[in-house]
Amino acid sequence: MSPLSEAQVERIARELAGRMGGSAPLARSRTSPAGYVARMALTPQAPVPEPVGARLGDGVFATVDDCIEAATIAFANLSAATLEKRREIIAAVRAAMREHGEELARHAHTETGLGRFEHKVLKNRLVAEKTPGPEDLVPETVTGDHGLTLTEWAPFGVIGAITPTTNPTSTIICNTIGMVSAGNSVVFNVHPGATECSMATIRLLNRAITGAGGPQNLITAVARPTIGSATELMHHGGINLLVVTGGPGVVKAAMQSGKRSVSAGPGNPPAVVDATADIAKAARDLVHGAGFDNNIICVDEKEVFVVAEVADGLIKEMRRCGAYLVDQAELRRLEKEVFVEMPPPRTHGAVNKDLVGKNAGEILGRIGVRQGPECPLVIADVPEDHPLVWSEQLMPVLPIVRVPDVDRAIELAREAEHGFGHSASMHSRDIDALSRMARVINTSIFVKNGPIVAGLGAGGEGPTSFTIASPTGEGLTGPRSFSRRRRCVMVDHFRIV
Ligand code: NAD
Fold first, then answer.
1. Per-domain boundaries in the chain
2. Which pTM was predicted?
3. CATH 1.20.1560.10 for domain 7-265+477-483
4. E strands, 133-176, in order
5. Which of 71, 319, 378, 382 is surrounded by the most beta carbons within 10 Å?
């Protein structure tokens, strides 16, 4: 990294202090913010001394304040680095996560007890390879009679990121690539139930970053995260942008914090199958999609609406793919296991946390049905108002509803999605029906004739993200979601034609 000029140091110090709304974490340092940043930033090649209170290393700190202090310095140092250095940092992060993805998947699986190890390996590989990097930030220029206007993507500064237990390592990897590509530093408050695998990920990321010549503590994390530390992060003056990935509680808290937030919330993705669909393929896609990582991914199919004339065929094909169809007596026992208390029709019920993310075989074992760990999915033939349809269970139990025609299927899909605007799919060869559902469902991701994970680039085209911000409108987030647009105008000159 090239050293900063005095003017640059002053600018960064002023900018940071200004954005921190008067409660800059650097003010806790023994020197002034400007002096502290200046000392750090003028010697970016030298080892950055650990701030007061840091004991744990490689980006892991005891308190929110310590994280923010270290990340603020790291942000200043990254701002002083070249774009080429940023590209090298991201390349090193991708390489390290490809190398350690399997080990981190194992760690996440062992610690959280959720999902399937082999699918977590795929998730880590997916985010390492397909999360957009610095190349996403293409400057825009407009020229005309009145000169030239340049728009560039600038960082926010220090981002406070809150991550879920369902995709702990992949969300951290994905957020890191997107946020650092945009020039930010990050303070993570991870899910308390995924602390160890998350800290292991943070440490590896920091080692990859410093190994590529990047700043220390570009990625930081609170060693023992709690809801309290998440709340502190949300309200801290040193955080310039919040990015939260989780259920309705954390989204609501972030949006009420008074800070700008990129909020990725819950979903209840419906799949519609009409009479024109390739039924065998739709069945394969549904079993794969709804069974992926035991259905803990927010985009996984959570209910199916199938036109009655092809329903028997679909269920038969899904069983051929290994899905287990419960009979009505088994369904009654399953309801008692899945829900803490059976909710009224058409309502979201509180689900039994012990079964979230468990293998289908284990869930079936609770109702006296023996199936091996290879069983990918439980399916249930249910009426449209069954609570399984209306609840985000996050387990491999997929309700299937028979409907008279495709229009009713689309309407029910819209209602069951609860207006989250998250994800949905349709299996059909009727282009009018596909277009109709695309418009009506109004989700961030709509997949036609494939599993919804294809919308994350897993078996489909395009980049990936594990933070799909529907409530705040960014959709699949990437470097641009974590950037501010800044415009510079040259009046009456620099048009060269
Ligand atoms: P969760 O909401 O329980 O926890 C997510 C994070 O938010 C954790 O770090 C948790 O500590 C924190 N948190 C929770 N409530 C909070 C509050 N009131 N104040 C501050 N912090 C709070 O979710 P989870 O069980 O880890 O993940 C599953 C949920 O997340 C599902 O609803 C799923 O659909 C959703 N999710 C959404 C996306 C997306 O991209 N839209 C991605 C993954 C998960």
1. 7-265+477-483, 270-460
2. 0.91
3. no
4. 140-144, 147-155, 158-162
5. 71
CA of 262 to the centre of ligand 1 (A): 13
Nearest CA owner, ligand 1 atom 11: 191
Return the structure tokens found at 431: 């282009």
Q: Which of the listed residues 165, 235, 255 should we mutate to test ligand 1's pocket, taking the one with most ligand atoms within 8 A of CB? A: 165
| Three-class SS of 85-117 | HHHHHHHHHHHHHHHHHHHHHHHHHHHHCCCCH
**How far does Cα 236 stand from its chain's mean position?**
22
Residues whose CB is less than 8 angstroms from the CB of residue 410 and which lie 6 or more positions away in sequence, other chains included: 272, 305, 426, 433, 436, 437, 440, 441
The pair of structure tokens assigned to 207 is 């080692």
Residues within a 6 A CB radius of ligand 1: 162-167, 190-192, 227, 230-231, 245-247, 249-250, 253, 264-267, 298, 392, 466-468
C-alpha of residue 163 to centroid of ligand 1, in Å: 7
pLDDT in tens, 343-374: 999 999 999 999 999 999 999 999 999 999 99
Q: What are phi and psi of 442, to 5 degrees?
A: 55, 45
Pocket test for ligand 1, best of 227, 464, 465 (most atoms within 8 A of CB): 227
CATH class label, 270-460: alpha beta
Q: Which of 51, 41, 61, 45 is nearest to 1 (CA)?
A: 45
Please tell me the distance from the alpha carbon of residue 203 to that of residue 60, in angstroms, as a whole number. Answer: 7
Judge whether 7-265+477-483 and 270-460 match in fold. no
Question: Does residue 245 sit in helix, strand or coil?
Answer: strand
What's the pLDDT tens digit per position in 292-350?
999 999 999 999 999 999 999 999 999 999 999 999 999 999 999 999 999 999 999 99
In whole angstroms, give the CA distance from residue 111 to residue 48.
Answer: 32
What is the residue with the minimal CA distance to atom 44 of ligand 1? 246
Report whether 292 contacts 451 (CB < 8 A). Answer: yes
